[in-house]
Specification:
There is one protein chain. It contains 20 helices and 19 strands. Strand 3 and strand 4 (129-136) form a beta hairpin. Helix 1 crosses helix 5, helix 6 (89-95) packs across helix 11 and helix 10 packs antiparallel against helix 11. By secondary structure, the chain is of the alpha+beta class. This is histidine kinase. Pfam families: GAF, HATPase_c, HisKA. Its EC number is 2.7.13.3.
């Protein structure tokens, strides 16, 4: 991916070497002003995990040459990296090698520790000659001083081993039209190598002298042989001394490097263990206060941070509230609790609020840097607590900021580093997940309790309504029975006397009077039929069921045959599916079929040809006709007692038929529904449970 001028490319150890050189050889240079001009901070340069951009590097080099007046200071800084205090642990690692040439063979592994701007490769071209090639990544545009600094680093590799300066030929340079920077490095033999060579020569001379002494007069070569032997012994002792010294130095460097590496491994192990412990805390605790307390203990004991605070959003989401802290005395903790962080406060809002809003971590190397950004009262309290540097990271979950985690360590020399920021930045989202889970669990518990109370209240209301409905239903049943029985006798008296009056005195009455009497008698008979239906409707509930296999096809044929006798002149087309067998009570099923087929016969009477069909599909029985039909918007009234969807003057009925069908099917565990269109007929469907259902 192409880089930009603001992409972090260069490790802070390069510029740490510059600052150490300036403090030793240019003490008059104001390094703070130099760093400020380049947009760098002292704690960033001291942090081996920090990286700077090309823009910062260009500003740093331009200002450095300006204030020192030394155009070649970049190369000088590169050479200075060979000093004992320049590269730190990396110097011990390099000294553990046999010689400088081995550094170049591993340059592709060493270079990424310092730069991400390029790829570096080495090729041996002679006994003491290496060609190095630096190929830059897309978008990288270094400046010539970085090339000089790189040459200084190559020279430092030889200074580490007390070699003379090598001969470096810059055969191809990107700043002179080349595609890469290519360096041809040659070096002379080291003092150790020359001493070893002298030892080998003296050995050859000594062997030659001994052979000559054996062949010629012994007295002639006695003194030269003695001198040659002394030379051989001297060179041997000296070379052994130098080798032993170099070996001890190499072993010491390797030991120091190993100790530092073990220390770093232990530190990484502690951090990994801390993250693992935080994960266990999340998986074993559900209360937010317990989670935050345990996380604070891990940060304090396992990672060694002196103090820390956790601020979370309050329920109104307009202020950050302290929810946990560690490392504070009781008095200091009360002081911290007094600090408020309103999220909607005007500028200056403070680092914590800014961190919360931007959702970006912040490393403050020196609190004086944020004096202008902080609320004056809060800054005074923080200063009184002895805070020198601190890290704050947003506590995030699913892209939403829930709070801020901040740590500091007043006892740590040099302050907090980028590696600490990376660690806290990795821990904060883990805390965010646990906080969100704890909040959700608390909400679920609260909602569960509310639902439980609502359910109990609903159950009480349902029980009360059910009891009321049962009483009302029982009263309605009693009313049906009472009305049906109590009205039957006076009703018979009314239309019975009407019949007597019509039979005994009808010949003396005029036509209208006889019609009035006939209407009284007919109304009484219909009323008696309605009462009978009401008794049947009431009797359905208490009827004893006898479940058996019933052939609805034969039942439909019988009912329709009886209906055809009532109107033999009507043109009728019947479609009855054979073998429709169901399990139910035969008496109730007979009532269901009589009502449904009777309605189909009645409401299709005005059609030129009556078409009625009965059958079963996918376990659902149906009765279909081509009669008057109905509006589906009125379908809810079909099964309500005494509700009629059609004009009573055209179609006689008492409005109880379909309500009785519904009750009878429900009594057998089935259900019924209807579909229709005005003028196009209707279809009624009903189901019954399988035969094995009791």
């Amino acid at each position: 991916m192409p880089t930009s001028p603001d992409t972090p490319l260069y490790n802070s150890r390069i510029f740490d070497s510059y600052l150490k050189l300036l403090r030793k050889r240019y003490p008059s240079v104001d390094t703070q002003a130099l760093l400020a001009h380049a947009g760098m901070k002292q704690h960033e340069v001291s942090d081996p995990g920090h990286w700077f951009s090309q823009r910062q590097v260009n500003l740093f080099h331009d200002k450095l040459v300006q204030i020192t007046g030394e155009p070649g200071i970049a190369r000088e800084a590169g050479r200075y990296s060979a000093s004992p205090d320049a590269l730190g642990p990396l110097r011990s690692f390099l000294l553990g090698m046999v010689g400088p040439e081995y550094i170049f063979y591993l340059v592709n592994r060493i270079a990424p520790r310092f730069t991400r701007s390029s790829r570096c490769s080495a090729r041996k071209t002679g006994p003491r000659e290496v060609e190095l090639t630096v190929a830059f990544h897309e978008g990288v545009q270094e400046n010539p001083r970085q090339c000089e600094n790189r040459i200084g680093f190559f020279e430092a590799a030889f200074l580490l081993f007390d070699h003379d300066f090598p001969e470096i030929e810059h055969t191809e340079c990107i700043f002179k039209g080349g595609k890469v920077c290519r360096y041809l490095i040659r070096w002379r033999p080291s003092a150790t190598y020359r001493l070893l060579l002298a030892q080998r020569i003296s050995t050859l001379l000594l062997v030659g002298g001994l052979l000559a002494d054996l062949l010629y007069n012994h007295s002639v070569l006695g003194l030269p042989l003695f001198l040659g032997l002394l030379s051989y012994l001297g060179f041997t002792l000296l070379s052994r001394h130098i080798e032993r010294k170099a070996l001890l130095s190499s072993l010491t460097s390797m030991r120091n490097s190993s100790e530092r590496l073990l220390s770093q491994v232990q530190e990484n192990f502690d951090r990994a263990l801390a993250i693992n412990e935080i994960g266990q805390i999340i998986s074993t605790r559900t209360e937010l206060s317990e989670i935050l307390s345990s996380v604070n203990q891990v940060l304090h004991k396992r990672l060694g941070y002196g103090r820390g605070i956790v601020y979370l959003l309050d329920p109104q989401r307009n202020i950050l509230v302290l929810r946990g802290c560690f490392g504070f005395s009781p008095e200091d903790e009360e002081t911290v609790r007094c600090i408020e962080f309103p999220l909607s406060a005007p500028a200056p809002r403070g680092v914590l609020v800014t961190c919360f809003h931007t959702q970006q971590p912040v490393l403050v190397g020196d609190i004086e840097e944020i004096r202008g950004q902080a609320v004056p009262e809060n800054f005074a309290l923080i200063s009184a607590l002895g805070v020198r540097s601190f890290i704050c990271a947003p506590i995030l979950c699913e892209g939403e900021a829930l709070g801020v985690l901040a740590v500091d360590d007043a006892s740590r020399e040099g302050g907090l580093l980028q590696s600490d920021l990376n660690l806290i930045q990795g821990i904060a989202p883990v805390i965010g997940i646990s906080v969100r889970n704890a909040m959700r669990l608390a909400n679920e518990r609260r909602l569960s309790e509310q639902l439980r109370k609502a359910s109990e209240h609903l159950e009480r209301r349902v029980a009360e309504r059910t009891s009321e409905l049962s009483r009302a239903y029982a009263e309605l049943e009693f009313l049906y029975d009472s009305v049906s029985h109590d009205l039957r006798t006076p009703l018979r008296v009314i239309y019975g006397y009407g019949e007597l009056l019509l039979d005994g005195y009808g010949h003396t009455l005029d036509g209208p009077a006889r019609e009035y009497l006939a209407s009284i008698i007919s109304g009484g008979e219909r009323m008696e039929q309605t009462l009978d239906r009401m008794l049947d409707f009431s009797a359905v509930k208490s009827a004893q069921l006898t479940l058996e296999t019933v052939d609805l096809s034969l039942m439909a044929q019988r009912i329709l045959a009886d209906l055809r006798i009532t109107d033999p002149d009507r043109e009728v087309e019947l479609e009855i599916q054979e073998g429709v067998l169901v399990t139910g009570d035969q008496r109730l099923l007979s009532g269901v079929m009589e009502n449904l087929l009777g309605n189909a016969w009645k409401y299709s009477a005005l059609k030129g040809c009556t078409r009625i069909a009965f059958g079963q599909k996918d376990g659902v029985c149906y009765v279909r006709d081509n009669g008057e039909g109905f509006e589906m918007a009125q379908a809810g009234k079909l099964f309500i007692p005494f509700q009629k969807l059609h004009d009573g003057s055209r179609f006689q009925g008492h409005g109880l038929g379909l309500s009785m069908v519904l009750r009878m099917l429900e009594r057998m565990g089935g259900r019924v529904w209807g579909e229709g269109r005005p003028g196009e007929g209707a279809t009624f469907y009903f189901t019954l449970p399988p035969a094995e259902t009791p």
